[in-house]
Amino acid sequence: MYIVAIAWIYVVLMMALAEAISPQGSVLGALVTFTMYGVLPLAIVLYIMGAPMRRRARRAAEAAGSAAAPDGSGHAAGDAVAPERKEP
Hints:
Blueprint (H helix, E strand, L loop, with lengths): L1 H20 L5 H23 L1 H18 L20
C-alpha cells in the first residue's frame, strides 16, 4: 500500500517541479498542484485504507482491557478473605 503512495507523491512532485521551472508556471501554481493533486487526495485514500487496521487495533485494545479486569467494573478488587472478627 505504501509503495503506491510513494510512487504517487513522486509523480506529483515531478509535476509540481515541471510547473515551477516552466516559463509559464509559477511556484504558487506548483504548490497548489502538489497540494491538490498529491497531498490532499493521498491523505484521504490512506485514511480510508487504514480504517480496518485501526478497527483491529481498537478491538485488540478493548480485549486486552477487559482481560485485566475480570468483573469489568474497572475498580480494584476488594479483600478476598474477610477479616477475622474477635468475640467481645
